[in-house]
Amino acid sequence: MYKYMVFILILVANSCSKTYKYDIRKKIVKICSNKNECIIDLKEISQFGWDKMIVFDEGASLSMVNKVLGFKYSNYNEFSRTILFVFKNNIVHQEKENYNPSKRYNNVWFEFPNSTTHIMKFLPNNAKFKVIRDTIDSNIYYTLRHLNSIN
User: Fold this and answer.
1) CA–CA separation, 114 vs 60, rounded Å?
2) DSSP per residue over 32-98, as a string?
3) Burial class (CB in 10 A: 0-12, 13-18, 19+), 34
4) How far is it, in rounded angstroms, from Cα 93 to Cα 48?
5) Domain boundaries, the chain
6) What residues contact residue 141 under an 8 Å CB cut-off, 6+ apart?
7) DSSP one-letter string for 112-146
8) What's the pLDDT score for residue 19?
9) Is the distance from CB of 62 to CB of 72 less than 8 angstroms?
10) Alpha-carbon distance 147 to 139, whole Å?
11) C-alpha–C-alpha distance, residues 6 and 50, integer Å
């Protein structure tokens, strides 16, 4: 009986998770789907409060993520691309995609400034991005380039 109660508690805890798969990405596609380029402000399109956003790719280690977050991240998956929205040191929203070297990533992703950068941090006042729509092999992709990195 004890095993069943623990199992039910684990199921309930997992169903209450604050992970909403691709919600922000879907909004970006909806906003920019009919344009080759557009500007989005993640502060404006998110439906929850946040004071920092962390984006990391498959090259980011848990220690790197913890250092940038300022607290221990318990939902880390090695070889994933992740977006974390944090408010007062609590994760309020996260989106993940597992790394697959044989296929291109989800149709929406952030451009990193160079090949050695695996983690980026943004505040609500600097979360504006140029979204570039591209078609490769009949698939549409959206790349988010931070406005501060555009010359």
Assistant:
1) 13
2) HTT-SEEEEEHHHH-SS--SEEEEE-TT--HHHHHHHHTS--TT--TTEEEEEEEETTEEEEEEEEE
3) exposed
4) 8
5) 18-149
6) 104, 107, 108, 109, 133, 134, 135
7) PSSTT--EEEE-GGG-EEEEEEEEETTEEEEEEEE
8) 44
9) no
10) 25
11) 32
Q: How far apart are CA 31 and CA 39, in angstroms?
A: 9
Say if CB 92 and CB 75 are below 8 A apart.
no
Opening angle at CA 40, ends 36 and 44, nearest 5 = 155
Tokens 């092999």 belong to which residue?
137
Tokens for 87, please give them.
Answer: 């408010």
Indicate the pTM of the whole model.
0.78
Give the per-residue SS3 of 53-69.
EEEECCCCCHHHHHHHH
* Per-residue confidence in pLDDT tens, the chain, 151 aa: 554 444 443 433 333 334 444 478 889 989 998 899 999 999 999 989 999 999 998 889 999 999 999 999 999 988 888 999 999 999 999 998 877 665 555 578 899 888 888 999 999 999 999 999 998 888 888 999 999 865 4
Longest pairwise C-alpha distance within the chain: 63
